[in-house]
Every structure is written in structure tokens, then in C-alpha cells.
Specification:
The structure holds two protein chains of two kinds. By secondary structure, chain A is an alpha/beta fold. Chain A contains four helices and six strands; from the N terminus they run E-H-E-E-H-E-H-E-H-E. Chain A has a single domain, classed as Rossmann fold (3-Layer(aba) Sandwich), CATH 3.40.50. In chain B, helix 3 crosses helix 4. Classes of the chains: A alpha/beta, B alpha/beta.
Chain lengths: ~170, ~290
């Protein structure tokens, strides 16, 4: 099935499963500028107990897990508005409690940011969703492809997982 | 108020373009509770578009049979069955009948439900029992009947439940449904864990507003046009996109998906602001889109 035929996608971060699914569903990748959909995967910080995290490490995790994700989506949404077009953002990362407290903070913040941006940008036709999961594989790829496709036109502000431990 | 013309509203592809191939459920049978109308029928049609044989279960046999007849026009086998999902013997008998007619049931859609706006103090014991037990006991009884049969066969399967977007917030003016729909979501998560080892996946849609002719909003005078603007997405849901997501969770495309609550509500449950219109207690909003009068 080609859920994304004719759509351009920007994929930020590493996930062979998601890249394969977006390709299989007909998306064309772009690495900068305007695009139809944005998928953002955060790198996972190393797991450390909170009292062993330096402030610099803490800040780096929040920067990559939250701040950069927000700023990139905001730039994307501005480009979509300027183009007079809707779009879709999907954030992908680990579940809130899966790593350290730095990730717990970033992922919790990201989840509620997702719900907020989904409503703020709803009437721009831009949907925002998040998948917080430990899983990799085809289901994750297909779920991302579905969420950025028009088939998910009524799904926005949703935060979900994939497997039992998400 | 209409949605202003400069707002962008995202629409799904039309019913004739499902998100999966027509043979994705080939050789499988789905049982849909409350499948004779509304959201259950939308689920049934979506499974049929993937090639599943469909057992349509409903309280009313004529409605179930009429729905089954309609499904055969999509090119699949279908069979209507009368069943009260609150009664374990009837549930077992319905599965027997479905399997005699269509073959082993490998997919289950729990949709049977009842809902109507009513003040908590006005809910009769009968009404409370009906709304909560159709959803809570019905989902339990159908799911466990399904799981026992799949486990006995040594084969996996998939269950999709129909819950609601108000399961995290409560639903003032609809206490019975508020309780019932949350129970469906929480049992989904636990059953997914109980049956993961048997290859049975269980997921739930927290569905928003999908008006149809038997829904309270669908019956209102003037239709649903003026409801579109209430939703952040700028429209109420199209019932076929609900059917598709439900069926999609049961496909091999989502083979790793289990224990998930997926919200599909166009942002409906999220539109709060710190500054809101004055609060009106449900008792004092007898009229309006979800009034109890």
C-alpha cells in the first residue's frame, strides 16, 4: 500500500525501520526546507541514576529530547503555513520511565507538548502525534507511516506506544 | 457557527480507498458485537474491505441480518446473529453459530454499547446496569470466549475495542458511560498482557465524535453541520476512518501492536483553555447538543 505516495518526508534521527516503512509507503525524503511530513526520532541518552547526572548531561538530554524537537516542529509548521498547506509531525522516542530521569522529564514534556501543538495547529491542518516505545521493527515503521498519512486525518494530539512495556 | 474558510481541515481518503489490500484478512472471520448499526457496522465494513468473513452480532436479529446482507455486497461472507453480550451462554452460543457458518473466529471487535445523556440522579438501576454491563461485562465475556477458543486451537488472534475520548476526563451528564468506557480501556491493557504469550493482541480506540443516524447527535434537528466547528480538527469524524483504524490494528501491518489505547478524536478531548466559558452544571443544561431532555 502507498499511504504516502507523492508526499515528501523529512526524517530526523536514526531508525532503519521507520525509514524503510516511509520508503515502502511511497514517501520521498528531503533533508531540508519545506516538506509534507516531519518525523523526529530522538537519540537516547545513556541511563544513569539522577544523582550521577551532571547538569551538563541533564541539559544535553533535555535539549535533544525536548528543545530541539519543539524548535524543529515550529519551523516546520511555519513553512507549512507559509505554503498554505497542512501536514503531520510524529515524534518517536522511548517511554517516559524507560531510561533515566533526564529522559523521563523530556518524554513527559514531549507528550504534553504533542497534545498542545496538536490543538494549536489543528486549524492549520497540521497534526502532531507521538510514539513512545521500546520497540523497533515493522509495526513501529507502519505506525509512523500511518500517523503521517491522510488515513490518520482524525488522529492528532495522540501519544501512544507499540508494545506491552511502552 | 461554521468553520471559517481560511482554516485547513484534514480529510481522510474516501471509503473506496481502504488503507490495506482487499485480501489482508482473507480466510479469517471477525465477530463484531453491536455490528448492526453505527460504529459497529463501520468496523464490520472495514473488516469486510480486507476480505474477512463477518459475523454481525446484535440484540436485534433483524438489524444484524440486514447488516450482514449489506456486507455481502462488499464481496464477503456475512452472517447475522442475535445475542445479549451480558449473558455468557448467549455469547458462547453466538460464537458457536458464527464458527459453524463462517469458520473459526480469529478477530474480534467489541463494539456493543449503549449511551444516552442523563443526570446521575436520574439513572435508573436498570439503565446503569444496561450501559455498564453491556460494555464492561460484554467486552469481558466476548473477549474471554474468544481467547479460550484461540488458545485451545493454539493460534493467535486480534481484538479491537471501541472506547471513548472521555475516558480520562470523566463525562459529566453521562456517568454510566464514563465508567463503562474507561473500564474497557483498562481491561484492554491487562488482557493484552494476559494473552501476549498466546499471540492474541488487544487494543482499543478512544474514539471521538463519529455521528451516525443512531447516535444522539445524529438525531438532532438541523443535523451535525453546526457540530463541526466544536472540534479542533474542524469536523466530526467520518465513520469509515474509525472503521479503518479499528481493522488496521488487527492486520499483520501492526503485528507488534498490543495493549495500546489509540485516541482518534480530532483533538476533541484536548481543547481546554485556562479561560473557558462559564461552567454550567449538567443539571442546568437540559437542552443543547448533549442535553438530557
Amino acid at each position: 500500500m502507498s499511504w504516502l505516495e507523492g508526499k515528501t518526508a523529512r526524517l530526523v534521527g536514526e531508525s532503519p525501520d521507520i525509514a524503510a516503512a516511509l520508503t515502502a509507503h511511497g514517501a520521498t525524503f528531503v533533508d531540508h526546507g519545506d516538506c509534507d511530513v516531519l518525523v523526529h526520532i530522538a537519540a537516547q541518552p545513556p541511563i544513569k541514576p539522577a544523582h550521577e547526572l551532571s547538569h551538563a548531561e541533564w541539559r544535553a538530554a533535555l535539549d535533544s529530547g525536548l528543545d530541539q524537537r519543539f524548535l524543529l516542529a515550529r519551523d516546520y509548521a511555519a513553512m507549512r503555513r507559509a505554503a498554505g498547506k497542512g501536514g503531520a509531525v510524529v515524534y518517536v522516542g522511548a517511554p517516559e520511565q524507560a531510561l533515566g530521569s533526564d529522559h523521563a522529564a523530556a518524554a513527559g514534556a514531549l507528550g504534553n507538548l504533542t497534545k498542545t501543538l496538536g490543538v494549536e495547529w489543528a486549524r492549520d491542518g497540521i497534526r502532531v502525534n507521538a510514539i513512545l516505545t521500546c520497540e523497533t521493527g515493522e509495526t513501529l515503521g507502519n505506525l509512523v507511516a500511518y500517523l503521517v498519512s491522510d488515513y490518520a486525518a482524525y488522529v492528532t494530539g495522540a501519544v501512544m506506544g507499540v508494545g506491552l512495556d511502552d | 457557527m461554521a468553520v471559517p474558510s481560511h482554516h485547513l481541515v484534514a480529510d481522510p481518503p474516501p471509503f473506496g480507498s481502504p488503507p490495506y489490500p482487499p485480501d489482508i484478512f482473507a480466510g479469517q472471520t471477525v465477530l463484531v458485537s453491536g455490528g448492526g448499526s453505527g460504529m459497529g457496522l463501520a468496523m464490520a465494513r472495514a473488516f469486510a474491505q480486507g476480505g474477512a468473513s463477518v459475523a454481525v452480532m446484535g440484540r436485534n436479529l433483524e438489524n444484524a441480518q440486514a447488516a450482514a446482507e449489506g456486507l455481502t455486497k462488499l464481496g464477503v461472507k456475512a452472517h447475522g446473529i442475535s445475542c445479549d453480550v451480558r449473558l455468557p451462554d448467549q455469547v458462547a452460543a453466538a460464537f458457536d453459530e458464527a464458527e459453524r457458518t463462517l469458520g473459526p473466529v480469529s478477530l474480534l471487535a467489541n463494539n456493543a454499547g449503549a449511551n444516552f445523556p442523563v443526570l446521575a440522579e436520574d439513572i435508573s438501576v436498570n439503565a446503569w446496569n444496561a450501559v455498564t454491563r453491556i460494555a464492561i461485562d460484554g467486552t469481558f465475556l466476548c473477549s474471554t470466549e474468544f481467547a479460550r477458543r484461540r488458545i485451545a486451537l493454539g493460534q493467535g488472534g486480534a481484538i479491537i475495542n471501541n472506547s471513548a475520548q472521555y475516558i480520562w476526563t470523566g463525562f459529566p451528564g453521562d456517568a454510566h458511560s464514563a465508567a463503562a468506557k474507561t473500564a474497557q480501556a483498562t481491561m484492554t491493557r491487562k488482557m493484552a498482557r494476559d494473552w501476549a504469550a498466546y499471540g492474541i493482541r488487544v487494543n482499543v480506540i478512544a474514539a471521538g465524535f463519529f455521528p451516525h443516524k443512531s447516535s444522539t447527535a445524529g438525531r438532532r434537528e438541523g443535523g451535525i453541520e453546526d457540530l463541526q466547528a466544536m472540534i479542533p480538527a474542524g469536523r466530526t469524524g467520518s465513520i469509515h476512518e474509525f472503521g479503518w483504524l479499528s481493522a488496521m490494528t488487527c492486520t499483520p501491518l501492526m503485528v507488534g501492536l498490543t495493549g495500546q489505547v489509540i485516541v482518534q478524536d480530532g483533538g476533541e478531548s484536548l481543547r481546554r483553555s485556562l479561560m473557558m466559558p462559564d461552567f454550567i452544571p449538567p443539571r442546568e443544561r437540559a437542552d443543547g447538543p448533549w442535553g438530557w431532555r
